Every structure is written in C-alpha cells, then in structure tokens.
User: What shape does this take?
Amino acid sequence: MADRQNRADYRLTLEGKSLGPGGTPALPEFAAALMEKFSPRLVSLTLTEKRDGEADRLDIVLDDSDGQLEIPQAGQVLSLQLGWAWGADVEPGLVDKGRFKVDEAEWEGAPDRITIRARSADFAASFDRRREKPHVARKLGEIIREIASAQSLTAIVDPDLAAEHLPVIDQDELSDAALLRILGRRFDAAATVKDGKLIFMPIGEARSASGRSLGSSTITRRDGDSFRYRRGERGQFGGVEARWHDRAKGQRSTVEIGAGGDKPPKRLKRTYGSEETARRAARSASRKMDRAKAEFSINLALGRPELFPEKPLTLAGFKPEIDAQDWLIGECRHTLSGSGGLVSELTLEAK
Assistant: This one.
C-alpha cells in the first residue's frame, strides 16, 4: 500500500510540454508510481503573489543531473497548477495559478540544476517601459482603460472609482505599472492583473477576473505551524486633515476625516484643488491608517493554493481580538518541494 500521507501535486508545462505530473490518478497506489517517475526533477517551486500592480513571480529549480533538460529561453510561457494529490488532511485537486513568461534561466553545477525565474504572462515588458504622457481633465476610468488597452488587457474598474475626476496627472518618465501604483495609493485601491484582465478596485472590495465579489475563507490556529501578530495604535493622530484651495474665497480651507479625541489629526502635505479631491485624499489616508493598526502573518504547513492577495479572511482559534478582526491577504508565497510538501506563507492586514 502506498504512503497515505498528504502529498502535494502540480501540473507544470513549458510551451505546452509537461514538466510535472499533474492529474494523478485518484488511487494513491497508482499515483505514487507516476509521481516517482516524473517528480524527481523538481527540487523546489515558489510562487509569490502580490497586488498593487506588481507581477506575480515564479521561481523553479529543476534537477538536471542527467543533462537531459534544455535551458528555457526568455519569453517562453509556463503554465502552473498547484494542489494536493491525496491525504487525510487536505482536499485533493489542482488550482490554476496562471501563466508566466520566463525572464531568465540559469544552469549551474555540480550538482547540475536549472533555475527558472518567470513572472505573470499578463505583464508585458511594456508595462515597465517609461512613458511621458500628460493626463488632463480626465476620469480615472478612462486612464485605467487606456492602460489596459495599451497592454492588450480588458479593464474592470469599480464604477465609483471610474467616475473620479482628475484635473491633471503627469505620467512623467513613469511606466504604466508605476502609474497604477500611484493611482492606487491616491484612491486607496489595488490594481491586479489576472487572466487578461486589469482589475482596479478599492482595497478590501476586490473582484475575480470575471468581476464577481471574492468570498471569505477561514484559517484556524491548527492550520498553521507558526504565526505572528502585531498590534499598533492608530498612531499619534486622531484623524486626517487635508487642505484645499478655495478659489471663491481666495483662501485655503480644510476638511477633516475621523478627527476627534485628544490626538491631533494628521495633516496631508499637499494642497488640493477642490474640496472633493481633498476629502477623497483624507478618506483614503484614514483607511490606510486603519489597516496599519494590525498585521498578521502565518505559515501554513498544509498549503492553501486557492488563497491569493486581496481575498478576505477570517481567523479562528487565536486571541479574541484577532478572531474578531476582518482580514485581507496582502501577499502569498506558495512553496512546493520535490519531496511532495506544499506550504503557504500569508501576510495579512486589517480590513
């Protein structure tokens, strides 16, 4: 009888050619023999998933001790699915983690190994190419859709964000990726690229590539083998204050969000062109301060490849204040070993 311990599974292809088992038979007795035939090449595989307009990263180390592997060429496409083959503590099945373009490959020895570094295939090289383009009197949705079109992507933008008016924003020697990060910080939104879609949503209100809301998942204390919680006060500030130029009165005016109590408000450095933009900036800064009040990280001994950034999470079995908090995934790192282990490292922030 084959080993009934939890065993990870994966399907990895390079330009359609299989580099990993995947689709293993349901019975471990047959699956074990198949995985032993194909898996020894895999030394390690690490997938890092981020948000804020940053590309997902895939790092793979393969055993080439027999010298039969070819060194992948830059630009070749890898496809990855991660999951579990079998086990009493896991749910068997594979999760599609997307397509990745090879950035670079390295061959070293001894022992002979090939290391492949790739990033999300939806991030074309032009995403990082600097451009000089002024955006004057435009709506945010128009800018996001223009970026998406330039990268051969389809834009999905929150309707309220899409309607936001920007008097002027200079794309002065900025790449589209950098501009997305700037817009994300200004509007407290996250840009993600998945399945040919550029998704721009308020942080905490992310959507799938099909536009559907993301359901919450639960992690219990027994799911992890280590964790860390950091709680900070909201800070030395009791709210946020933003100034704007009131042309009608010929003076600067102020709006405050969340002000009150004994602590002074945080004053934003910039003077805004209208009360509306000042209020929006103050509200965005206030939400960021709220999210920064608590951080949580956890290592899952039994990886959860179905988890990804911006997905809401509920924690259970920790301190009451931790369990009562709504959480968002900020970053995921899934690591698969050649021995059949799969772990997930999650960084969370307060929602």
Notes: The chain has a mean pLDDT of 83. The chain is about 15% helix and 45% strand.
